[in-house]
Amino acid sequence: MNGGVIDTGLIDMILLAFLVAITWAIVRLRDLFGAVMLTGIFSLISACLFMVMDAVDVAFTEAAVGAGISTVLMLRTLALTKGRSEPHHNRLELGPLLLVVVIGAILIYGTFDMPRYGDPQAPVHTEMAARFIEQSGEEIGIPNIVTSVLGSYRGYDTFGETTVVFTAAIGVFLLLGVPRRGRRAGDALRNDIVLRISAKALIPLIMVFALYVQFHGDYGPGGGFQAGVIWAAAIVLYTLVFGLARAEKIFRRRPLELLVAGGVLLYGAVGVVTMALGGNFLDYDYLASDPVAGQHYGILLIELGVGITVAAVMVALFFLFVRRRQV
Amino acid sequence: MAAILDLSSWICLVAGSFFALVSSLAVLRLPDYYSRIHGAGITDTMGAGLILLGLALQAGISLVTAKLALVLIFLVLTGPTASHALAKAAYRLGLDPVLNSEKDKASSSR
After folding, report:
1. How distant, in Å, are the alpha carbons of A38, A118, A181, A200 from that of A18?
2. Looking at this predicted complex, what is its ipTM?
3. What is the pTM for the complete model shown?
4. Residues of B with CB below 8 A from A1's CB?
């Protein structure tokens, strides 16, 4: 609170040491359930590390996606596959080892061309960052520069990322879409009154928080990706506690599938509209008579598109995992 | 006044850290699953709670304190629920608590 600069080097080092230790544990551990929990912890500590580096948006994403929803999806997968790994043979495989060493050496060699870690003269600091920090206030007019960069300057990349999420979901639908016969993997903790009441109290709060993250992303940390994941987490919690049958009555399959595509469509449509209005693809300046207002509309719409697709994909995937019976 | 606030804030922070330490020791040292859940639960409630309270005292009446209060409410709701869910799941899977005194053995064998 006194505004002094704190040397975070020690915290960095401790957190990095944790990461190394956890990685080692994941490699050594034969128990898949434990390994999944450790990957979740790994993500949480990475999020702390990003937080220490003041990269709040990244930390937020890492905590929500890495530590939150992907752990749930992995646990669900384990529940389907019985959570055993193949018997492990302690034989030295020379071929793979050689391959890993060679590729590792090439990658390390590649880093020699990169600017030194934290080098203030690196181009990303002298040109890009300076430009974003100085100009984005006038050009985009929103306080969170990260959102300006993600939504506007790097709008193509974010469109690409959203499409990747969409494509990955299509891939999983194709692989797992056909339900199998068999025993349904454990369903519903509905009988437990403590869980039921806590979930009822929490789910609305989580959903409101997701909306806050979605629409406050211009001013604080947050945006479509995080909001989508948090929204999905609320529905996952509902499904875990009240069972798939009730969840699917509220979040029906067909609208969910439409939303998976709808978010990407909304994002792309914004780009097409800007082209129709005379600009380049995703050049939001043309969305309103005032370029800054146009940027606001554009970022709001594309963030909404991202949020819709991410939330719908996460929920649809989770339902798919739960619906699938145990092999 | 400021000094009192600062002092009480630090007492809360140190006490919170102490409880977190006790809790991690408990997870390492206590004999069985259920008592370890109890140990881990201390971090969620006393550890995080006191640290949040200490931070709120540092921040004074501000938006930060409001956010810390929301975090505290969230933890108070989720922490005990998580402990409960863990214990219940283990019990349903048939994990028995370790009971090592003679009296406990006599009562559990009934």
Report:
1. 11, 21, 43, 35
2. 0.77
3. 0.81
4. 58-59
